[in-house]
Specification:
Elements: E1 2-5, H1 6-20, E2 24-28, H2 42-46, E3 51-53, H3 58-70, E4 74-81, H4 89-96, H5 99-102, E5 112-117, H6 132-135, E6 142-144, H7 149-161, E7 166-171, E8 178-181, E9 194-197, E10 202-206, H8 210-222, E11 228-232, E12 235-237, H9 241-251, E13 254-258, H10 266-277, E14 287-290, H11 300-306, H12 310-321
Parallel strand pairs: 2-3, 2-4, 4-5, 5-7, 6-7, 10-11, 10-13, 13-14
Antiparallel strand pairs: 1-8, 6-12, 9-11
Length: 322
């Protein structure tokens, strides 16, 4: 087992799945050139028919992916940035998310829409928004947001093999993160959370880049005698509700940390579920830590002020302990 970057793990997953299954293809803007390193050099091995560059037309690219999936292929549609999914929303919500139902199960829709998500590189509002919460509201569409190289590889392989549409979001801030990744074949099932840090006093539920902010906060709090359990959901839809509720039953306190605007965020869903289903276990009100409800600034200092910080997570945990 060797240490690899988040980006290298994406490339490994794509290469392995394209070698394993001839129906897997890659389609998107500049995927042959590999502007994003996760798709780099794949065209050299798999050629023009399986690595297809497209015009700058996200709606058209997404539609091509939906059509390919409905007729027997397994396309990975690379749309670069999460905000570009807005331009493809009709194909995802009205077509990909409904076809299996509308066709009475006569077809499957094994398409992966892969983009960068969230802030962290000062790329401005058009490239730095978190979009996962929008797609959590579409029936039959799964949403994945990994935090580590190990997780991104195993989850991407599972997403490609899934017969439903998957929104696969890679946190923009994590491309250079390194961790151990097995050289042998492995997958991680969608919908299964991972406990990144065990603790008995407070449950912190999170995903993506916010896992690292939550772990930083948990380390600080441990120095004050407060042990937090940090749960990385990895998959936002379906999310591992049972694992979170089991943790809250032990800790009695819950903090949701989400790189999204507060209204109708993923954190709102987690908090509402815990308040509804674990009310008798709670010893304090649930807390949410989210992105400030403003357009994402270009300035690095302002961007840091807008997204959740470890200090804000520490403050939220202390509110539950008061």
């Amino acid at each position: 087992m060797s240490k690899k970057t988040y980006i290298a793990a994406i490339q490994e997953a794509l290469r392995e799945e394209m070698r394993r299954d001839q129906s897997v293809m890659l389609i998107g803007e500049d995927v042959r050139l590999g502007v994003f390193a996760g798709t780099r050099n794949l065209h050299q091995e798999f050629g023009d028919e399986r690595v297809i560059d497209t015009p700058i037309s996200e709606l058209g690219v997404a539609g091509a992916g939906v059509g390919a999936a409905a007729t027997g292929l397994r396309p990975v549609v690379d749309l670069m940035f999460g905000t570009f999914l807005y331009l493809a929303f009709d194909q995802i919500a009205n077509q990909a998310g409904a076809m299996r139902y509308m066709f009475g199960g006569q077809t499957t829709l094994p398409v992966v829409f892969m983009t960068q998500n969230g802030a962290g590189s000062s790329a401005g509002h058009h490239h730095s928004q978190s979009v996962h919460q929008f797609f959590m509201n579409i029936p039959l569409v799964k949403v994945v947001l990994p935090s580590t190289p190990y997780d991104v590889k195993g989850l991407l392989k599972s997403a490609i093999r899934d017969d439903n549409p998957v929104i696969f979001l890679n946190s923009l801030a994590l491309g250079g993160k390194r961790s151990e990744v097995p050289d042998e074949e492995y997958t991680i099932p969608l919908g299964v959370a991972d406990v990144k840090r065990a603790g008995d006093h407070v449950t912190i539920c999170t995903a993506g880049a916010m896992v690292y902010k939550s772990l930083e906060a948990a380390q600080t709090l441990a120095g004050e005698g407060i042990e937090c359990e940090v749960i990385d959901l990895r998959t936002l839809k379906p999310w591992d509700e049972a694992r979170v509720l089991e943790s809250v039953a032990r800790t009695g306190r819950f903090v949701a940390v989400d790189e999204a605007y507060p209204t109708c965020s993923a954190a709102s869903e987690w908090a509402a579920t815990v308040a509804e289903k674990a009310f008798s276990d709670l010893t304090a009100p649930v807390q949410r830590v989210t992105t400030k409800p403003v357009p994402m600034p270009f300035s690095p200092r302002l961007e840091r002020a807008v997204i959740p910080s470890a200090d804000e997570i520490v403050a939220a945990v202390k509110r539950t302990m008061a």
